[in-house]
Every structure is written in structure tokens, then in C-alpha cells.
Amino acid sequence: MSDDEERTRAMLERLEREFGKRQDASGMESPDTVEGARAAPGSAMPVGPAAQARRVRLSLPLSKPRVVYALLVINVLMYGLTLLLTYLRQNAVDPRFGDAFTMVLYDLGAKYGPAIDAGQYWRFVTPIFLHGGLVHLGFNSYALYVLGPETERVYGSLRFLAIYMLAGLAGSIASYIHSPDLSIGASGAIFGLIGALAAFFYTARSLLGAEASRQQITQLISLAAINIVIGLSVTAVDNAAHLGGLAAGALSGFVLAPRYRIDDRLYPPTIVRAGRAAVSWLLAALFLIALLVWALLSIGRYR
To answer: What is the C-alpha separation between 240 and 72, in angstroms, rounded?
Structure first.
């Protein structure tokens, strides 16, 4: 038995001696938690080192998702604006783009290598909120709806937004380096959420359980791999943005992942956040600076 297991067992034995065994509403002793059981984040789940004698069921301190729904609304509104401007400008098409819809995407800030080289650096960020059709918008919106709330719950709204934007920025930079062609979409940022969730389960493995964390990480890696393979079979998919966003999401997620510890001063024990938030944000700021330096060193290849 490890030191953590012995500590947890000794703590529970001490609490039982002082307060008696736990009882449910009927006055009967509560059964032990089943070893290895795990619920989704947001519900009560068995955490902490595996105690062979007894385990307690604790809950992570989670945040309520808000930013993810605001992002969904922004994406839909930007697509609606794209359609409206396309209708209004269908008779004034720039011959560089061939059709009004593509021209409007360019005007709204799509990533385009020559324009970035000309000093339009905002095109590293604005593509995150643009989409090229209903299928594109629907797929990304569904992925964001599935991955976003869980990511925001475990990271908190501000850290979630930081991860989303850092991953989106990295995806745009990788896309620019790979190709000068016009590119748009939130998929780089969404791949970043996959990386961030994997980073969270890795950093929390001692609390959630090594086996449960390994299963979650394996599923996330499989999800990313399947989507990358699908992307490689479709010429219109910007795989460079996906890979850049995935890597940035994993790195920023690792830096910003909340650390936890068990506070055993109360009964039952509670899970509280540990570590210094200022350090996490400082590292995230350094990562942002590294991305900006990467972008600046890359600019000029399409002049």
C-alpha cells in the first residue's frame, strides 16, 4: 500500500472513531464505494488514492458553462452576417475570389497568406469565428456543444476562453505556414479543447484514479486521430490548423489545468483547488508570447 493510501485509510479510521460510521437516511450504514467506479465530471465521483478498506465519494468544484454558449451564438451570428453581405454584394464580385460568398469571407477576416504578409495580422484571429457553409457550421457547432461545456466546467470560464483562443491562434498560424490559401473555421480551437481535456485528465490522474484517467485520455486521443484521418482524406480540410490547435490546446491546458488536493479537516473531506493561479496565468502569457514570436518569424513567405 502506498503512502497516500495509508494516509487516506488512517484518516478515515480516525474520523470513524470520532464520529462513527456514516449512515444513510434510514439509519443504515452506507455501503462502500465500488472500486474503479467513475461518473462524468460534474457529478459525485470516487476520487483520491484507492483505499483498499473504504473510499469516500467526493465531488470536484466545477464551474457553470457560459462562455461556450456565447461562442456558439457568435458563430451563428457571424454566419448570418456572411449570408447577408453575400446577398447584398452578389453583383460586385472581386475577380480574385470568384464568388461573392468567398469575397465576403475575405472581407470579414479569413486567413489569407498574402493579406497577412501585407500587415493584416488580425487574420490570425478572425477566422476562428467564420464558417464556409451550413455543414461546416453545423459540424463545428456540434463539436463545440459536446466538448465545450465539459471543458469549461473543469477549467472555469476565463481559463476555457484562454485555451480556446490560444488554440485557435495556433491553428491559424500553422495554417498560414502550411498554405497561403484562404481558410476559415473554429476547428483548430475545437481540436484545442480535445487537447485541453486530455491535459486535465493527465494532471488530475492521482485524484481521479490512474485507470479512469488513462481511459479518458485514450478516448480523446482516438477522437482526435479519427478526425485527423478523415481530414486527410478530404482536400478542403485544413489539417494544419487542426494539428496546431490540438498541440496548443494540450500545452495551454496543461499550464492552466486546476490542481486539486483533499482537505481532510472536515468530515466528509472535500476537494479544494491547490497551487497559485498567478503562476498558471504567467505561463499562459509566456505561451502566448511564444505563439506571437512564431507568427512574426513566419510572416513574409508569400510576398
So the answer is: 23
